[in-house]
Amino acid sequence: MCSGRVDLEFILRAFSNGADGVFIGGCRLNECNYITHGNYDALGNALLFKKIMQHIGLNPERLRIEFMSSGDGIILAEVINKFCQEVKDFGPLGKSEDIDGNGLKFSFEAVKKLLPYLKLVERERLRVPTKSEEAYREFFSSDDVNRLFSELVLDKLAISQIMLLLREKPLSTSEISATLGLNPSEISKHMNNSSRHGLVRFDQSQKRYALA
Prior knowledge:
- The chain is mainly α.
- The chain has 2 domains: 3-168, no CATH class; 170-212, Arc Repressor Mutant, subunit A, CATH 1.10.10.
- The protein has 8 helices and 4 strands.
- The longest helix has 26 residues, at 143-168.
- It has helices at 8-16, 38-55, 73-90, 101-125, 133-141, 143-168, 173-180, 184-196; strands at residues 22-26, 63-67, 200-203, 208-211.
- The strands form 2 sheets. The protein has a two-stranded parallel sheet with strand order 1-2. Strands 3-4 form a two-stranded antiparallel ribbon.
């Protein structure tokens, strides 16, 4: 199977199902067997998901992508063995990051709800014009992309998390802020935007926000 078919959802599902690390292997860049350069799509998805992992508090080194040919069996074994040892050193998913099971489940569910939007952002705004691994890594670590990621993704992820919290019970701005570790002014901004879109309403009797 072409590594280009490794969707963001596949990576999320692996971690959601308890994988402590995820390894993606593809053919060498610029040597695509299908002439589609799908391995570059896999690289872009991996680098994007690493940014998401970092934001929700997970070690992005738990995700690895490597490229090699079918004749690199020995190299593949060495790379995988090294990666497995690194993951063992990290410990179980969430443990070294000090995130409990409920926290992981909550974060993964928020990301899952955002996946269709993330795919659209990747397709429309995060495509790299130059086909080289260096160009991709420089692109995804650049200040411009970090700013774009913050503007286009992090706000939407925060709203996704807020919707999940309000699904349980109505909450005040300060309660949401304390749970998510966000500035109250950010929460107010998200609540105002969500109210305008008919997603939430303010319950005057409880002085709390609830799902519309």
